[in-house]
Design goal:
Two copies of one chain form a homodimer.
Chain A lengths: L15 H6 L1 E3 H10 L6 E4 L6 H4 L8 E4 L3 H15 L3 E6 L2 H5 L1 H9 L4 E7 L2 H5 L36 E4 L5 H16 L3 E6 L6 E3 L2 H4 L5 H4 L6 H20 L3 E5 L2 H4 L3 H12 L2 E4 L14 E4 L2 H4 L4 H6 L3 E5 L19 E4 L3 E4 L2 E4 L3 H11 L30 H11 L5 E4 L18 E4 L9 H14 L6 E6 H7 L4 H6 L4 E6 L4 H6 L17 H4 L7 E6 L2 H10 L10 E7 L7 H8 L8
Parallel strand pairs in A: 2-3, 2-4, 4-5, 5-7, 6-7, 9-10, 9-12, 10-11, 12-13, 16-17, 16-18, 18-19, 19-21, 20-21
Antiparallel strand pairs in A: 1-8, 13-14, 14-15
Helix pairs in contact in A: 4-6, 4-18, 11-16, 13-16, 17-23
Pfam family, one (chains A, B): TPP_enzyme_C
Keywords (chains A, B): Decarboxylase, Lyase, Magnesium, Metal-binding, Thiamine pyrophosphate
GO molecular function (chains A, B): magnesium ion binding; pyruvate decarboxylase activity; thiamine pyrophosphate binding
């Protein structure tokens, strides 16, 4: 192909020739840039008139467009995609009506260290800058409270500062080159959502796409996790040695594995390697569930403070003389309502800092430290833990239930059903608080919103997870544990599975309303009721072919056993979508939820 | 009933006796106060752990709790309730996950002058003020980007400043007394949403409820619209005369009726009275549709500038030598993309100001001016309009359609179908832009989001409208014009009709995706597709009794005629829910939408 000769046009300079070859529309450039990012294959959102000009360019790439029924659902799907891929979940919405509908999903992603890149279509740069035009009140935009004042086109962009790591408002095409790369880097560094606000007229403007070739983004997700020079290497080595020396000198050091280890590149592998090399007793937090192999001989259990741990767990944990807390997220839900005890002997290995005693070291990412410790560790000096002092039992209590299946039975059956490498997405609801009582097989992925707890998230998130599994060629099963009240929030997105040829195994736990709320207040009040739907008819409405779905309503334990036995091992795209409505008692919740509810907040940490 | 004698308790003072009798829990007080507000009978929302303690108190009042499937839907329903009742639409959500899910509905209400009172449950005052506790990251709350910083419990409250008229963060129980009344007053004064942030522990605290008896809120919705003293009376009379003198001295004065006249107390009646008394030619805007009787002999038509008005309308409008623009909302959609011409001879009667020529008078609410003008007008001095100079025709164009029913036919049939006093809720979508071409019968109410244009709003809004109609004992029919793409956003709320015993007549216009977007860009692109659902199966899923719903899929014109003829005159709570899926061509839109799309924004106003 011969490039158009710019030299023939009077007034142009010869040096422009190379650049001209690489000129492409900004919209195309954005998608091509995203295509370079590790594990980004699908993009989520809902079209709107302020970003159609952007969407148009996606067809020039291999990226899949996954249209959602609404923007909140698309936001949740992008979050699910990000959690599974440990990379960007790209979300595209339109000005005002779209971006605001999705803001709860973005806020949840922020609260849970999930990497959504939210691209929002905006009015044209001309509308925002022309002295006459910018006075106009254009659709989707709230005018000022005072009707005599001009519109502020950034009114929505101003809302997101506390739920994103960074935002970029693009006002000319050349700005995109640095801003997009920087935004993506910030998202990976903080593992938090970032915003790109893009005026509608810019998508067709030409930009110099030369860096697509000269500076690939292939390694951006881990670039900042690599030690950059010998000075940093000395610094990290020194800190790694400081931590290791404490390990060598302790009598009974233990490791607590938490969710941030899941959020950075190969954090999970580095952590498992560290565990294997030290062979120390280790625990996992509520949000860290599935992060480490629960079949490792030194895995002790799920640590959720004195309040929510199984008997013996807390006692053993606090009897240790050194805790290495890796990838921590210290919050109410993750610490047994702050009853987890972290004494002076705790070393915190965070993405933002390393804390040893009362000393905080910035610029010491736990990924760098883990990698360094794995490489320099003297295994002979790592102490062997004494035997566990306190016996560990399980409070797998039988809670009274008027239904034939109670949650304790359900959890036992689930424990037997799940297989190595299954992916389990769990809705916010009572059953979530029973999962620390069951043992996950090795290689499992567990995805849930354990802290932000926005009900309705899991179903659309599982669409995103399913997309990600399909995109990456997973041979795993996708299982969704869903509640009736939460499913009512976002049910329409269940129709996406058929459309995307994803075949999850869905258990809808029907306990006749908001059971979690009933336990807190209003056991039998109407505000905790939901409308009774005929769940099994859902697929006829959503136009799922009869031969591609299996459904059953399950009331008896024998029916549950039979159903579980009938579900085959297969990949996320094979077989049929399975949907089981399981009838539970409306006041049946795991013991842990009762414990959590009966205890007021106790300040234990500082 | 003998009040408990406080005098018997040592240390109390006698003056406390009266107050003690009136002490009641803050939660109960809030609902009893709301109960006093004109037309407030139902309250919308979704329960959450931060407001269950509030909800508990609703059962001590006659207010209905209307639980939504999700918070966005409840927000839309509250908006619909407010539009129909011209009073508060009360929305209750929980911290973070709930309030953010609803923020797009609130933003839409702000953009369209709808009166949502949004009550948000928050963490307890102790959690927010105790030096130790406030460091904790509690569930539903996004921590700071820097993991070493404390939580900011007001992070969500900070987001709403530009989408509300006022917000009150209640930090002790006594504050509620003035703050609630003031907030409600602000909402009515601005006809905009207001926020009440309520910590979970305060609902059970006792407050002195004495003002429930001594200062009723019965008239709060119009209190500020009454002339308060002789000085104000002189001021308003002077301004009213100023306006009237201009009318008397004009040759061809006309009235343009707009949506704000619908938003304040008896604004519509005052406007119709003003029209009747002056007997001047008058027009209605896009958003003002149904505000004035279209069967009045001097009603000229729907004015949407030179771009979107039917032929002759704009020409007649601009030939006038004086325009009285009442209750104006000057925005892109309402002015034919700013092609409406308002010259020097325009008098603007707004809620915030009166504008005569270039002079702006604050403190001259159009309601006060209309009432005054109606009372002091010398009808003999009002000129009689000359005959209309330009013939008015209708561009009821037959747009090419591959479907057997096209939108032009549909609009004609609808025009014949709708009856006086029907309530029509219309979804944002192509058909909305055809409605200015049909004549509405007298007494009809038209409810649509003509400026903010958030698709998915109309269905849940019609639930709120239906509640309001039921609450106020309406004998009217409720009709919903819905689209397929928009219905997918919020479909679950359709199950509320059965639950609430509301029987709307629903026309689902199925044009196979986002037709409005297809016209703008991507006619056949996949991003404008939606998933194909079997709409008629929806009620089996949502558990609507077979004998309480009639459904049909309509492809042929004869089927449409037959269906429309079979629908009886009845009230909103009588008969069956009717649901007709009407198949349209995916590129068939009213001429007005093509005109709007082909024209760029033109700055015409200043």
């Amino acid at each position: 192909m011969t490039p158009i000769s710019i030299e023939q046009i009077p007034g142009t300079v010869t040096t422009a020739t190379d650049a001209a070859v690489n000129m492409m529309p900004l919209g195309e450039y954005i998608f091509k840039r995203l295509e370079q990012v590790h594990n980004v294959r699908s993009v989520f959102g809902v079209p709107g008139d302020f970003q159609l000009s952007l969407l148009e360019h996606i067809y020039k790439t291999k990226l899949n467009w996954v249209g959602g029924c609404n923007e909140l659902n698309s936001g949740y799907a992008a979050d699910g995609y990000s959690r599974y891929t440990r990379s960007l979940g790209v979300l595209i919405t339109t000005y005002g009506v779209g971006e605001l509908s999705a803001i709860n999903a973005v806020s949840g992603a922020f609260a849970e260290y999930s990497k959504i890149l939210h691209i929002v279509g905006m009015p044209s740069t001309k509308v925002m800058t022309d002295e006459q035009l910018k006075k106009q009140h254009i659709h989707h935009l709230v005018p000022d409270l005072d009707s005599l004042k001009d519109s502020n086109h950034l009114v929505y962009a101003d809302m997101v500062d506390k739920v994103c790591c960074a935002k970029k408002i693009i006002m000319n095409q050349d700005q995109i080159l640095d801003d997009l790369d920087d935004l993506i880097l910030q998202i990976f560094k903080t593992s938090r959502p970032g915003y790109l606000f893009l005026p509608v007229d810019l998508s067709d403007e030409l930009v110099n796409a030369e860096r697509l070739h000269s500076q690939s983004l292939e390694h951006i997700h881990k670039s900042f996790l690599e030690i950059k020079d010998s000075e940093e290497d000395r610094h990290i080595t020194e800190l790694a040695n400081k931590v290791l020396e404490q390990v060598y000198n302790a009598k009974n050091p233990v490791i607590l594995a938490d969710v941030l280890a899941d959020r950075y590149a190969n954090g999970q592998e580095l952590l498992q390697e560290f565990i294997n090399k030290t062979n120390l007793h280790h625990y996992v937090t509520f949000m860290g569930k599935s992060l480490v192999s629960e079949y490792h001989p030194k895995f002790v259990g799920d640590y959720q403070g004195s309040l929510l741990s199984n008997p013996g767990i807390h006692e053993n944990f606090v009897s240790s003389d050194l805790v290495l807390y890796v990838g921590p997220y210290i919050n109410e839900m993750n610490t047994g309502k702050y009853t987890a005890e972290f004494k002076e002997n705790t070393i915190i290995l965070h993405a933002d800092y390393l804390k040893i005693g009362q000393t905080i070291y910035r610029d010491a990412h736990f990924i760098k430290l883990l990698a360094k410790m794995n490489s320099i560790m003297d295994q002979t000096r790592v102490p062997i833990n004494p035997l566990l002092q306190f016996p560990i039992t399980k409070k797998f209590a039988n809670i009274p239930s008027t239904a034939k299946i109670n949650q304790s039975t359900l959890l036992s059956k689930l424990e037997a059903f799940i297989q190595p490498n299954d992916v389990l997405v769990c809705e916010t609801g009572s059953v979530m608080f029973g999962l620390p009582d069951i043992k996950f097989p090795t290689g499992m992925r567990y995805i849930a919103q354990g802290f932000y707890l926005s009900i309705g998230m899991a179903l659309p998130a599982s669409v995103g997870v399913g997309c990600a599994m399909r995109d990456l060629g997973s041979s795993q099963r996708l299982i969704l544990l869903e509640g009736d009240g939460s499913a009512q929030m976002t049910i329409q997105e269940i129709s996406a599975f058929e459309h995307l040829k994803i075949k999850p195994i869905i258990f809808l736990l029907n306990n006749n309303g908001y059971t979690v709320e009933r336990i807190i207040k209003g056991e039998h009040q109407s505000y905790n009721d939901v409308k009774p739907w005929n769940w099994l008819n859902c697929f006829k409405f959503f136009n799922v072919q009869e031969d591609s779905v299996r459904t059953a309503k399950i009331v008896e334990v024998t029916e549950l056993t039979k159903a579980l036995n009938s579900i085959e091992t297969r990949s996320v795209t094979e077989g049929t979508l399975e949907f089981y409505e399981i009838i539970l008692d409306q006041l049946d919740v795991p013991w842990r939820f009762h414990a959590m509810n009966s205890n007021r907040l106790l300040p234990k940490m500082d």
